[in-house]
Amino acid sequence: MAVCGPKLRINGPSVIYGGEGVRLGTNVSFNGIFISGAGGVTIGDNFHSARNVRIFSVNHDYDHGSALPYGPEVVSRPVVIENNVWLADGVIVCPGARVGEGVVAGAGAVLRGQIPAFAVVVGNPAQVVRYRDREHYEMLSNRDGLT
Ligand SMILES: CC(C)(COP(=O)(O)OP(=O)(O)OC[C@H]1O[C@@H](n2cnc3c(N)ncnc32)[C@H](O)[C@@H]1OP(=O)(O)O)[C@@H](O)C(=O)NCCC(=O)NCCS
């Protein structure tokens, strides 16, 4: 990995390809994750993945590549995950996604594009169903110095 902060915990089967593109913050916890990191994957502090979480940062260049169904050419689309994010069981993060601070992604959610900070999102494509209780979030954040 390009950067790996302290307190990394790996509690389940976890695989990282293209680790040179992966940057991890402090207190990152993987319960079972696959990361395709060659296009750039940045994960902030206090991240928690449940099992079977998948993060992709590269697409095959199907519009301009030299072979079918795709050639060796790829399009890199970096993924950024801000601090204090929980990705529940089976979440998929697509290339180019930017996941805001404090986001909770429900089981099986497919994340693409911009996911707003403090949102609770579910479904495919992920939609906001509510926002976290900001007062409680800020209390914990101030207490533990989480931001
Ligand atoms: C996302 C989640 C945290 C929300 O829990 P919650 O705050 O109690 O929310 P609710 O159960 O009230 O659901 C809110 C809405 O989202 C929907 N929803 C909740 N989870 C969903 C999911 N995973 N996929 C699709 N829709 C979901 C509900 O149907 C509900 O919709 P409605 O308002 O139209 O009825 C929870 O449902 C979930 O997915 N937890 C993941 C569990 C897990 O993976 N644990 C691993 C341990 S690390």
What does this structure look like?
The chain is mainly beta. The protein has one domain (3-143): UDP N-Acetylglucosamine Acyltransferase, domain 1 (3 Solenoid). Helices cover 7% and strands 37% of the residues. The chain is built from one helix and 20 strands. Strands 2-5-8-13-16-19-20 form a seven-stranded mixed β-sheet, with no helix packed on it. Strands 1-4-7-12-15-18 form a six-stranded parallel β-sheet, with no helix packed on it. Strands 3-6-9-14-17 form a five-stranded parallel β-sheet, with no helix packed on it. The protein is globular and about 55 Å long.
Topology summary:
Blueprint: E1 3-4, E2 9-10, E3 15-17, E4 22-24, E5 29-30, E6 33-36, E7 41-43, E8 48-49, E9 53-56, E10 58-60, E11 74-76, E12 79-81, E13 86-87, E14 92-93, E15 98-99, E16 104-105, E17 110-111, E18 114-115, E19 119-122, E20 127-131, H1 134-144
Parallel strand pairs: 1-4, 2-5, 3-6, 4-7, 5-8, 6-9, 7-12, 8-13, 9-14, 12-15, 13-16, 14-17, 15-18, 16-19
Antiparallel strand pairs: 10-11, 19-20
Residues 50, 88-89, 104, 106-108, 120, 122-123, 129 line the site of coenzyme A (COA).
